[in-house]
Sequence to fold (768 residues):
Amino acid sequence: MTSLLDTLFNGLAIGSVLMLAALGLAVVFGLMGVINMAHGELMMLGAYTTYVVQNLLKTGPLQALFPAYILIAIPLAFLVSGLAGLVLEKTVIRRLYGRPLETLLATWGVSLILQQLVRSVSTAFFIGLVLALVLGLGLPRFLPAAWLRQRWSPLLKLGSWLLAGGLGIALAALAGQTRQLRLPWFSARNIEVTAPQWLRGSIEVAGVTMPTGRLFIIALTALSLIAVHWFLQKSVWGIRIRAVTQNRSMSSCLGIPTDKVDALSFLVGSGLAGVAGVAVTLLGSVGPNMGGNYIVDCFMVVVLGGVGKLLGTVVAALGIGILSYVLGSGSLLLLWPQMPAALNSLITFFATTSMAKVLVFMLIVAFLQFRPAGLFPQKGRMVEA
Amino acid sequence: MDRPSWLRRFGPWILIMAAAIILPFVLPPFRLNLLGRFLALGIVALGVDLIWGYTGLLSLGQGIFFALGAYAIGMHLQLSSLDSGQLPEFFGLYGVKELPAFWQPFSSAFFTLFAIWIIPALVAGLLGFLVFRNRIKGVYFSILTQAALLVFFNFFNGQQKLINGTNGLKTDTALFLGQMVGSDSMQRLLFWITVVLVIGAWLLCRWLTRGRFGDALIAIRDDESRLRFSGHNPTAYKTLVFTVAGALAGISGALYTVQSGIVSPQFMAVPFSIEMVIWVAVGGRGTLLGAVLGAVLINYAKSLISEQLPETWLFIQGALFLLVVTALPDGVVGWWRQGGPKRLAAMVGIPPTAATYPSLDGDGAQQADKKAIAAKLESGGTP
Fold:
């Protein structure tokens, strides 16, 4: 009995991390139909925000707040990732609505850039980047307006960006001469986030040892879920988001600013990725490559749950989490020691984390054979046949 | 202006033949090996172009079929250089005493020659049939293929006892036709085989995309429902083209393996399969030449840049993804064919010359008339 509860608790913990990560994706992909391959990298930004907050509070005048740094990091991570997502939407994704495959490729490109950015950002790099952006955006304003209406003005813009980029690189190289400025902020190594003291213990209930860190993640997931549900169902903007999801052109005719709705949903979805990033820091070390570990799982959750339904995301995330824990840890063998030898050897074969993933994904693909639209398909005439 | 028609028709082929014969003696072995590898990747790019450029199916799982072909040749080379009764070395590390059953047939070269492309084709056909039968398309197809890729990756990565897990299989010290696979003369031979197979794959794809089959593929890309309503079955077309792409990926993987000297589960890593798409996108989706060119050029650029400034490559690659999607949707070859250079020239003030009737240009009376009209206009009259 105890081992059953233990298995369930651990599966629940894994499932809730997955749910938290997939929740943002459910908003972005489920409601807007945008494939954001940079979602994992937005989580990474959240994790790095936690790291920065931890280091800022470790020493200095605000040291008293250190035990609560993770609580401070949550809203900050939401903001950082949300703003990054907003910039992404305004610059790239906006041009690609209605072309999902192109969006997928473009956001993959963004994810590569973000990965390398956290690896190589240093003060010198940062100065150069700021100069390049300021010049690139600002140069056209100093040019005579007539020049910008010529046939060759696209070439002029290209030239000004090239010039800005070149100057930025030159400045970065110049600043890089000083060792102090050349030092990378995070480097390519994994970063260490230590959980505060109160998240390192464990509580024992009915014979099950529950680490407080995992309890915290479960609570955070539940809170985020309730908040998103409230936002989508009750708040004015949530209702607008759902209206645009159901019928974009009709909503636009009724005066809903669809542009703002798109930007807002993207901000919320990306912000949730940031919160998930904070939760991930409690589970282990995080690095520039962490996004790739989550992105496919998150998409599987959303596809399995059915697009456009939060309930589907919840059920799918918990199902996948519990199933992969049960299979991967080989708990079935403990629960049922007298099982037939053939079944026993089969379960032992799949009783590692990666092999459990193989089995779970195979089961999902098999399931989609019978219910191609997921667990909770959207009904209505808008759904493409 | 008038080139003889035979030169226009056969000129490129003569150039390619000459290059293929001369290059192995001009390039240093290392560069030749790289070029051979990248040409091999051109074959998988042709497959990606068939399914994505022509049919509109963005598969992020071509690495599965690439790696299956690669493992087939890798297993054969492990066995071919052993005396009978011996086991490949790595089995000893995991305490395996007997060759697993699925390894047995790969000791035959004849079987392997077919396994390289038939096994990936079968897997692709099965996967494609299951997915397309349910009318799963668009991004769902992409996500599912990526999930399938991850399944295979985890499986090959985790099974040390069956296929040496993460370490992969080394092939460069294996013997093939009595010679070491990694030796210079063997690599030269492999380069020529690669060139021939790239041309063969290109001809196959050209044959498929011209004519009715190609029309059906483009119809699926542009409006699948309309094709279905006019009485065709898109599932059959899609399954078939996905199978062909799988077979091409398998051949490509085998050629790549013998030239790179190792096959490992990294062939099934998620980024590698997405990179295949970017080769096609940069070269030009929907143009076969673009697929091969894109694969060779991007990989060459990657190896050059990674040698010099390794940390910038991801920035450049990311920028390429963004650039191709937003500014060059048809890739370099597509841009060229749709009059891109002329438009660029027009931007800097060289207007394109419109096509005229040469007979009118050569007709003296017409030209005299034209001059007279121009003169009248200049002096302010009406023609």
